[in-house]
Amino acid sequence: MRETPTYGLMAEFHDASALVAAAKRTADAGYRRIDAFTPFPVHGLAEAIRFKDNRVQLLVLAGGIAGAITGFGLQYWVNLIAYPLNAGGKPLLSWPAFIPVTFEMTILFAALAAVFGSFALNGLPELYHPVFNAPNFALASRDRFFLIIEARDPQFDPRATRAFLESLHPHEVTAVAH
After folding, report:
1. For the chain, where are the alpha helices, taking DSSP H only?
2. pLDDT per residue of the chain (178 residues) written in tens, 0 to 9
3. CA-CA distance, 68 to 90, in Å (whole number)?
């Protein structure tokens, strides 16, 4: 019978401060493929695991710019090209009247870029993830805190990584099957 490949090693902690301290020590030890799971947002955890991803911000900016161009361009096309109508001597390109629609389109496109960009960058909807195989992982949504070091980390060695995680004094260290 074949052995199930390991996704990583997961440490379980009872409080957020222990998790943040363990995450800092893990990142300082040179591990890069680490993740944490908590029942609520924990201040300082993203910095502790050295999570630096600003692609959502760029997507929202691009969505906002696209929305502004679309809103202004649509009004420009309607008022100057498709259906020019001179009402009361007003110029055809009366840009102050275009501001409300341009603003609203900017907000709409930026919000849609944030929602769909977050879904795409987070790989959602993800119907299965190996961490759900870990015992007690259901407690991650209630009162437990988990730190995982993935097996694809260049520094991952099953025995050395387990010994390192146990030195962080977790409640339990378990192997997560793929």
Report:
1. 16-28, 45-48, 55-76, 95-121, 158-167
2. 456 689 999 999 999 999 999 999 999 999 999 999 999 999 999 999 999 888 999 999 999 999 999 999 999 999 999 999 888 888 888 899 999 999 999 999 999 999 999 999 988 888 888 999 888 999 999 999 999 999 999 999 999 999 999 999 999 999 999 8
3. 23
Integer-rounded Cα radius of gyration of the chain: 25
Q: Say what the pTM is.
A: 0.75
Task: Classify domain 6-52+129-177 by CATH architecture.
Answer: 2-Layer Sandwich (3.30)
> Please, where in the chain does CATH 3.30.70 lie?
6-52+129-177
